[in-house]
Specification:
100 residues, mainly beta, five-stranded antiparallel sheet, globular
Length: 100
């Protein structure tokens, strides 16, 4: 059995295209994993595929927006908090931490 990865280019879309470009996934609302940005701010998780623990709808983390969007709680974090990604139609994929 092989693992296939899909890219969701448009936040909020339920359509994703395989990395190889040979398949389309419909109903891609809640992914199994997401690829963390390749950025030092994500420490050891940078560029890694991490499991999605929970998908939920809530207010946009950009306080200038009044819309409700999809968020994904990730199975990645450290002493500074857990990682989340939100799918904002205006600003794209917004990465943030829960610092509570």
């Amino acid at each position: 059995m092989t693992t296939s990865y899909f890219n969701k280019d448009k936040p909020g879309s339920d359509v994703a295209v395989s990395v190889e470009g040979d398949a389309i996934l419909l109903g891609a609302h809640s992914p199994d994993t997401v690829r963390m940005p390749d950025n030092d701010a994500f420490g050891d998780f940078a560029g890694q595929h991490v499991r999605v623990d929970l998908t939920f709808d809530s207010a946009c983390p950009n306080r200038k927006h009044a819309h409700v969007i999809t968020h994904h709680a990730l199975a990645a974090g450290d002493d500074a908090g857990a990682f989340f990604v939100a799918e904002c139609p205006a600003d794209g994929f917004l990465w943030y931490r829960d610092r509570t």
